[in-house]
Amino acid sequence: MSKEDESHMTFSMLPDDLVLNCLARVSKVYYPSLSFVSKKFRSLIASTELQELRSFLGCTSSGLYVCLRFRTNTDYRQICFTLRQKLSSSAKILVPISSLDSPFDYRSGVVAVGSDIYAIGGRNLNNSASSKVMVMDCRSHTWREAPSMRLARDDFPSTCVLNGKIYVIGGCKNLDSTNWIEVFDTKTQTWEFLQIPNEEVCRGFNYKIVGYKEAIHVSSLENNRATFMTYEIHKGRWREPHLSLSHGFHFSNCVIENVFYRYSYEMLQWYDSCRKIWKNLKGFVRRSIMNPRGEGVKMVNYGGNIVLLWEECVTIKKKLIWCEEVVIEKKHQGEIWGLLKWSDVVFITDEKNQLVRALAPDV
């Protein structure tokens, strides 16, 4: 090749394998901009080969997905959005995902495992309870069907993930201690029941399940009285949790590197499992527009940081959704600090909707 030919060589003339290797090492934040470079770039960025290469190289990162429930004339519909950076600035916004309308009902239990989002149960088109499980691959925004549950669950089942297994509780009436909990092994793709020795917890409502420190923690409310139970995975036994820990279940919460965090009463707090007490996250200052009790605030582990989302009603019709990322830093003497990375409005709407949940799968 002559020097003149070399001077006219462009990046798009390189072999696809080499371009893919370069793109895989670039943050996905820049993919929308890079898609405008050429048709070749746009095709490679949308390819499954790029997603597989990112996973192989360990170049994945957390993506933020937000579910909003919109009111229609006859019912509700749930739409998933993902956080993207604007092309013209550093600002971030929520945009609807490019897949077809979500095939799951707004009553489904939803949970993220790796790069997948599972939609569990809900109601069928004929308005009957469903045992169906749908899975969205967040790398391609395509849906597939997973094995169905043993029982149909349509009344907002609560879900959590621990060690690659999805735990599902509640979601339908007339459950007892033998079938209140179902467990899905994402590796073997099989369901099984997990028996709980406490019938009282099965009779409640507003149930929650959290995976923390090699155990699942469940709770339910009945007649303004909460019941709590903890299942130790490796020991295969149930026990009552420490009272102070159970106080975090019904607040917005998440687990990061085996530390339990919650947002309650104007503060971000973390649970000191050695001293059995809740401590304030130092450095965190609540925004005045956030609900001081934490109602409506969604909280998620976003690549080791905490992301908070909440709504602000500006007028009767206009609503804003705020998003805030807090960097977690562990200091000497066991203290944990939360430093604000960014905070901004990411969604503006005049439609009736509700912020339902936030998820952070690998992308």
UniProtKB/TrEMBL annotation:
Q: Which residues form the F-box domain?
A: 14-54
> What Pfam families does the record point to?
F-box (PF00646), Kelch_FKB95 (PF25210)
Q: Which SMART domains match?
A: FBOX, Kelch
The name on file for this protein is: Kelch-type beta propeller
Provenance organism: Arabidopsis suecica
